[in-house]
Write a structure and sequence with these properties.
The chain is an alpha+beta fold and about 140 residues long. The protein has a domain of about 100 residues. The protein is about 20% helix and about 25% strand. Strands 1, 2, 3, 4, 5, 6, 7 and 8 form an eight-stranded mixed sheet that branches. Strand 2 and strand 3 form a beta hairpin.
Amino acid sequence: MDDVYDDIAPKPWFAATGSEKIYYVTVWGWSHSRRVIERDGLVCFQVTVHNQDSWCYSCKERLLFVKQQLANGNIQYFWTHEPDDASLYITVGPPPQGVSVEIYLSGLLQWPLTMDGRPEKGRGKRRKIKGDSHKRHHIVH
């Protein structure tokens, strides 16, 4: 079986041309909150918490899950990464008018996620989110 990373060629995103909002979301069954960035009319969703060379089985399973869900929905996307971390993000178009980012992403992935707080403006270091070391059952999808 080929490595899940073989067909991923992330594009770096060094500077937004407009304003950006940064959110943190909790994905049901995933052990860490994920960053979501709205910028330049697109939505970037953090899929992994490690880089491409990682040995992390969970990140690989999540990549496969996200790829499959987007393929099932015939959703156009591309892979990106941020200059301040080595995680992989999917980047998709904006949510429809009046639809929140978490509802939009939940629909695309067909998997529940919830906002961890209010969006932050601009670039910022990831703040530690209380409960980041969830004691939930580990579910990969």
